[in-house]
Amino acid sequence: MNEDIYTLQQDALRRVNEMRSRARANLASEPKRENKPPDKSKKEAPLPLDESKKLKGFPLFSFIKDQEQLLVLLLVVLLIGEDFDEGLVLALLYICL
């Protein structure tokens, strides 16, 4: 029994050493890359939404022009469908005013 455990441990150590040598070989063969932070001066401006391509079809979209307000109201609808905190829903509705 002890001999079996010793054999398994030796086999595990051999596999660990084999995997380490493979990893070192892969690291040595890959070209080194410089870790530069992304250039923050090249921020992409969000694309303007064409009025004709805004969300259509759902009646609520025609009543509410502000997309942020619509998002908050949809969040309120989702919260009401679940177990919700009444204070949170009232606070979200207050934000929409």
Features:
61% helix; 97 residues; mainly alpha
Describe this structure in words.
It is a single chain. By secondary structure, the protein is mainly alpha-helical. It has a domain at 54-96. The protein has 4 helices and no strands. The termini are far apart. The mean pLDDT is 76.
Shape category: elongated
As a percent range, the share of strand residues is under 5%
- Level of helix content? 55-70%
Structural class determined from secondary elements:
mainly alpha
Question: In angstroms, what separates the terminal alpha carbons?
Answer: 75 Å
Mean pLDDT: 76
Counting DSSP E segments of at least 2 residues, the number of strands comes to 0
Q: How large is the radius of gyration? A: 29 Å
Stretches where pLDDT is under 50 for at least 5 consecutive residues are none
The secondary-structure element order is HHHH
The largest pleated sheet is described as: none
In short:
The protein has 97 residues and is mainly alpha-helical.
Write the layout of secondary structure elements.
Elements: H1 2-29, H2 59-63, H3 67-81, H4 86-96
Helix pairs in contact: 3-4
